[in-house]
Amino acid sequence: MPTPTTPPVSALTTDLYELNMVQAYLDKGETGEAVFEFFVRRLPARRGFLLAAGLEDALDYIETLRFTSEEIDWLKSTGRFRDNFLAYLKDFRFTGDVHAIPEGSVCFPNEPLIRITAPLPQAQLVESRLINILHFQTLIASKAARMVLAAPGKILSDFGLRTAHGAEAGLYSARASYIAGFSGAANVVAGQRYGIPVMGTMAHSYIQVHDDELTAFETFARARPNDVIFLIDTYDTEAGARKVVELSARLKADGIVIRGVRIDSGDLIASARKVRGILNAGGLKDVIILVSGGINEDVLQGMMTERAPIDGFGIGVNLDASIDAPSLDCAYKLQEYKGTPKRKLSEGKQTWPGRKQVWRSYGADGRMSGDALSVEGDPQAGEPLIEQVMRGGERIKPAPTLAQIRERAARDLARLPEPLRQLQPGNDYPVKVADKLVALAKEADARTRR
Hints:
The chain is an alpha/beta fold. It folds into 2 domains: 16-141 and 325-449, nicotinate phosphoribosyltransferase (Alpha-Beta Barrel), CATH 3.20.140.10; 201-292, Alpha-Beta Barrel (TIM Barrel), CATH 3.20.20. It contains 17 helices and 19 strands. A 7-stranded antiparallel β-sheet has the order 13-12-1-5-3-17-18. Strands 7-6-11-10-9-8 form a 6-stranded parallel β-sheet. β17 and β18 form a beta hairpin. The longest helix is centred in the first third of the chain and has 24 residues, at 127-150. The radius of gyration is 25 Å and the shape is globular. Its EC number is 6.3.4.21. It is an enzyme of class 6 (ligase). Pathway: Cofactor biosynthesis; NAD(+) biosynthesis; nicotinate D-ribonucleotide from nicotinate: step 1/1. This is Nicotinate phosphoribosyltransferase.
């Protein structure tokens, strides 16, 4: 399995205000140790949990962040920045520490997904891109996890590249959904970069190019004889299924086995039932049925309830754009500077100060029963979730494989309380804020008022 690698992007993939602040910090000599944490303030409607994703790509970004001479020259040409700032960027290396909740972990509001401890200009400079990576992958992994829970045991594939908001979004969607339990993705570069199983069939255009559907099926199967899956709804779905039966013996004689058929339109449940009957009657009981088009977790739950004879689903824009909840209310906030806890008091956006840890407890049934949030040095009952992953700008242990991250996600999803596993709305998971953290917040408020 290849090591995850962040797609190459410019170091200028950041917001101008990050650069503005670093210039001002350098001018004033504000380079003391700062602590920032990234967290989600509140869950979107209908979400009962999140699945943390994107950490390995975020660490890769931090570890390799460099400014090229071309980028620095361009910044100089804008006339916005002074020589001390430009010289700082020329020699920039991240030298701080990173603590995080491991990828594939279930998490909840106000729990820090990542903590950055570094000289203030460094910790500030990485903000925008860190949020960009962690927000999006966590958003998609959380959406994908709902689909995995809605259709246990089914083949789920990310078909959303063409409707994703850009190439990187399509790539990250494939990675995040695979972590959550998807079987693979149609996105070829996801296979090359991350080792994700690449899955795909054919388009209606391939059928239309040929004078008849049967010929289209046969030429496709002989051109690509492994894992043959036919798209059968270009003209008439039932007629397409009968042609698959007609062709199967001829292909089998040449060692070509038909793996499945795909339906992309109409009443998917009704069509699948009719097609299953045709395939079974033709001796093709092992040929699987895949469907695509408008699939989300509600559709999946409905199909499971109806016991539709469908083996797998291709899921596009509902996954890659997380249509019902296209963003998370998240933040990357200063929690401590030069050893002094810091707290934001903006209405509706108050933060908990200091370096924090999350402890998770489990019931007798092995399911999660509640989390506790407190300052790092205030142990609570349960299992601590946040661990150190980088020291002095370097990883302290080998990166987990994508398979290991995926295993963690499967374990955590299995340990969710049953109402959350069933995607039932209105079931809040308890996250207790410990007394010591509350007291620290009061101290920070008093200091602010003074």
